[in-house]
Design goal:
Blueprint: E1 5-10, E2 19-24, E3 27-34, E4 37-42, E5 56-58, E6 61-63, E7 70-71, E8 77-79, E9 96-97, E10 99-102, E11 105-109, E12 124-131, E13 140-145, E14 148-158, E15 161-170, H1 174-190
Antiparallel strand pairs: 1-11, 2-3, 3-4, 4-9, 5-6, 6-7, 7-8, 10-11, 12-15, 13-14, 14-15
């Protein structure tokens, strides 16, 4: 797997008009979706530092809850409600990260990230699980199943905690695969996963 890209959520867990707070290696991020497109930004409004994940999406833009500053998909501030006639300076921007969706996951990239790793063409999301561990060695884990293959990706939230994200390639039973993911979590927390 490319270390330029990290999966941080299942696509289905961030529907249109929704914000989600996510931690990645201790950094606080917000995922939001407007007009069908997912965006990942630093979870901080440039104006007063309020968490943008507490804001709301309206008309394809993310609005800060504190003073209502509105940020468009490009991360530039497009409207300041207290000064409706003001032309907003282009330097007022949220800190945006490269973002893409593939394999049923939302991925965040490092600055200048290369191509996304090869992923299955069609997948079915299973679930995301928090795991108390530091011991996951590979970025993508796979388990062959009757009727398909489970792909488990992960990201480190902070030392001692990771999030697993599972998707199925094929037609395996989702409830059985969810149970398998819970077993994988237990194995990692007990230090016996391979």
């Amino acid at each position: 797997m490319s270390s330029d890209w990290t999966p941080i959520a299942l696509s289905r867990d961030v529907p249109d008009g929704v914000t989600r707070a996510v931690c990645l290696e201790g950094s606080e991020l917000v995922i939001w979706r407007g007009a069908g497109e997912a965006h990942v930004w630093e979870d901080r409004c440039p104006h007063r530092g309020m968490r943008l994940s507490l804001g709301f999406v309206r008309d394809g833009a993310l609005n800060c809850l504190y003073h209502g500053w509105q940020y468009g998909a490009s991360s530039s501030c497009v409207r300041i409600p207290a000064h409706p006639d003001l032309t907003v300076p282009p330097t007022i921007k949220a800190n945006a990260y490269p973002t893409c969706e593939a394999g049923g996951l939302i991925w965040v990239g490092k600055e200048g990230a290369g191509a996304l790793p090869a992923l299955p063409a069609t997948t079915t999301p299973v679930l995301s699980l928090a795991v108390a561990t530091d011991g996951i060695e590979a970025q993508g884990l796979m388990r062959d199943l009757d009727g398909g293959r489970l792909h488990v990706f992960w990201h480190r939230v902070r030392p001692g905690k990771v999030m697993l994200h599972g998707v199925i390639e094929g037609s395996a039973d989702v409830s059985r695969v969810a149970a398998l993911m819970r077993q994988i979590r237990t194995q990692y927390e007990e230090g016996v996963a391979a």
